[in-house]
Amino acid sequence: MDPGEVNSLGEPYDYSSIMHYAKGTFAKANKDETIRPKACCPRPPIGQRIQLSPGDIRQTNKLYLCPGNYLNL
After folding, report:
1. Which among 25, 42, 64, 67 could bridge 21 via Cys, Cβ 3.0 to 4.6 Å?
2. Domain limits for position 26
3. Is the pLDDT of residue 24 over 80?
């Protein structure tokens, strides 16, 4: 994908996003990795499903033109 094909609203790539797949997503055995972050040592964790990340919240505020910077949704 070219950078011009993705609109992240000026935010950096968010490894902590609730929308990010886990590293074993789509694998036949969940222990297998199908997604691996390029960043080296230590690799950031991906695939959390607990809460919105700060980046998720910032992007949502920008997308919906929220007048303030809400910390939660």
Report:
1. 25
2. 10-73
3. yes
